[in-house]
Amino acid sequence: GAVVSQHPSWVICKSGTSVKIECRSLDFQATTMFWYRQFPKQSLMLMATSNEGSKATYEQGVEKDKFLINHASLTLSTLTVTSAHPEDSSFYICSARDPRTSTDTQYFGPGTRLTVL
Amino acid sequence: DQQVKQNSPSLSVQEGRISILNCDYTNSMFDYFLWYKKYPAEGPTFLISISSIKDKNEDGRFTVFLNKSAKHLSLHIVPSQPGDSAVYFCAASEGSNFGNEKLTFGTGTRLTIIP
Fold first, then answer.
1. pLDDT over 70, % of chain B
2. Is the separation of the CB atoms in B114 and B14 below 8 Å?
């Protein structure tokens, strides 16, 4: 199956700093990647759809100026949490659809645990 | 508005028996459904999917059933194994035909297999 990686797997930062999370498709090219957030014991909530070469599409209620998404190449999307605050502490997961298949199956990265002190 | 619902937050099943996880949805535009398995602090792992033109899809120990009229799908795992203990999410999309690849997830069901 398709492989998606994320880096870092966990990060601790001070309040007010910015954190960048990378999402890579390792064995396929992804024109579209997705960023999710999961709070403890809750479902995955889609934050935004990252489109290669164009602006990301954000879900309602997600601050685009706070969660900056850049999809600079067909294998890399980045999520930058700007001026992080403790309430941004969460588990962030990216996914991508393998265009080699004709289905909507998305393959997920291992996730990044962000803790803001 | 929770468009995909998993009403059982947890389920315990004896090893070797059948595990049945249920999922209901409200959006009639959904036409592709998936099940993911998730361990703590890891990303979801794709298990099995079904398109709305089918009512059943089987892959090894995993079978997904879809009842479109009832807007209900279920995942059957048989026989259940201890390694199946995890949180299971169902997800739905409106299909790539419409160019909408977004997945909407249910709230998850924690499955515990008792040895």
1. 95
2. yes
